[in-house]
Write a structure and sequence with these properties.
alpha/beta; three-stranded antiparallel sheet; 2 domains; D-Maltodextrin-Binding Protein, domain 2
Length: 444
Amino acid sequence: MRKFLALIVVLALIMAVTAGCGGGNSGGGGATTDTSGSGSGDNPLAGTKITVILPENEMDTVGYHKAKTQKFMDETGIQVELINKGWEAVADDVLADLASGGGTYDVIEFDNSWVAKFINNEWVIPLNDYMTDEMKSGMLPGLLDKFSADGNYYGITWNNDTRFYMYNKQMLDAAGITEVPSTWDEVSAAAKILQSKNIAQYAYVDTYKQEQMGTNELLFVIYSFGGQLIDDNNNPVANTDPGAREAYEYLAQAYKDNVFSKASLTLTYEEVADSFFGGNFPLFVQAWPGVYADSNDASKSQIVGNVAVADFSVSKTGAEQAVLTLPEAMAITATSQNPDAAWEYIKYMSSKDTDKERSLAIGSLPIWSDLYNDSDLLAIYPYWEQFGKQAQHAKGYPDIVWVDDFADIVAKVSQKILAGSETVDAGLNEMQGLLEDAKARAGE
């Protein structure tokens, strides 16, 4: 019943925002549907078909994107085959298609970790001539910059996936911890207090899994110590960067001291969130935006009303502020036979009106800057004020062509360091050698 009511709200929002823009059905999409007589008017692109492949959005539990895609078809007469799958499945399909010459898709998932590879291989086209001045000046600069190179824009963000520091204030209060830990030393101290009072076995849980998600979280810790694994010239510096070394020294000791759960080496994002919702630990050091809303959903959470968002992120001293951003964009393939229609879809799905409507419907973070000051949105999501403060320090993956090898190497070697099968020095030396080899194979 909750999902049905939410879907009614979504459809009402779509109809309200697009009132007067043409009639037609507002049901869910996904497959190509007949759009004849549906308000396309004299649109010269009416009847054009495009294929769009994007991952399922974990926040979209009410079918917003499918309903909005159907509305786009109704209004424009452009036919859309919308393919939604899990992220890994989409990545496999997109990468395989592009590597073999492409031609299957018009609009594709453009992940933040793919930027250098896709641009260097000329798999996506520049969007400069399509984009309006309003888009260039009004969308969040960090999101535009992430999918740009040499003055060209290649992607428009559809999923503003930035991470934020949240905490269970009730657990901290029960432990007598009056100040939210802001440094890693304070996180370690909090773990001892929580353990001594039998409130929690550890201060936090994360995923340091031997997959890309593990590398994501490890990068945040490295950034939070002021470190990096790849320097500004795209050279590996794993065994020479002091911040990276301090980060691994901290993690190796924290593993021994149960500052974080040892199960973090095998857990997925979903399992970490479920553990947080179960009240098993107080500090969610890098939570995605939807965690806050889900923590207050009694059907998912046992900690309703107990979660707060910090104004800052955990770091070495407080000066090394960083939060991880992993945005996903839409891009037009170089092999698309209908790039104009593909752009019409991207423009429609990323307009300011759609961005606000989507935020109201599913709680997604806006991609337009001034929506963070929108009274309607702040009335529902007042904690976005804290999100905004942390988001000023967002940092993502290094822009390297060999990013897949990078993620794989970091995840695998890090597990050895954290679990103690290799010393920090030995592990970072191994990581450095493997990164240098990967760079050389890529010809960078």
